[in-house]
Known about the structure:
7-stranded parallel beta sheet, 7 helices, 7 strands, alpha/beta, Rossmann fold, globular
Amino acid sequence: MxxxxxxxxGASRGLGAGLASTFxxxxxxxxxxxxxxxxxxxxxxxxxxxxxxxxAEAVDRFGSMVTARFGRIDLWVNNAGVLEPIDFLADAxxxxxxxxxxxxxKGTLFGSKTFVRHVREREGTGVLVNMTSGAARTVYEGxxxxxxxxxxxxxxxxxxxxxxxxxxxxxxxxxPGVVDTGMQVLMREAPVERLPxxxxxxxxxxxxxxxxPDWVARFLxxxxxxxxxxxxxxxxxxxxx
Length: 241
């Protein structure tokens, strides 16, 4: 019997690429997209495409491509996101702020909308995962726009979960914990006058206190397959330790 189908946005590198690799190892067929066309894991059945998640029509087309190839989508992970600008809000570039909101909020909403409509049109359940962050609930000076957009993702996911429950959709905002991606590099390298907490991220690197993408992916698989039963829509991946 063919395996389930998972879509991952922002799948060309970092956490997204790691999720794709582990999903493939567990028999998932994949729909992978990013602004830069991703590479499919070895021997994976995959639809891959360069997609700008801020373009609603492009996201819809990609969802249709995956459905045409595999017949359905079981899991949709809105992983695409950006961190910059890292700066006090008063000094941040307005264009960078606008782009950040477009990717982190509109991109998540567009992907969610595509998947919600797909689940409504077919039989069975579906799981939506919107990647969030502890920054949604923590004050990090120099990261106002990132904190704000992740808080928006949390609330949007709560609303989607409520709106779509009777259509068989389950939605979670998942904070993966600290994963050593390009975003972590940016935070470690940021001047302390723009990101006062930068030394915290340097210390995390020195201690190698990270969750691996594989660890996060396995958590998501357990979530999808019913081995985790969260009490809340907003879920944090436990520390790998």
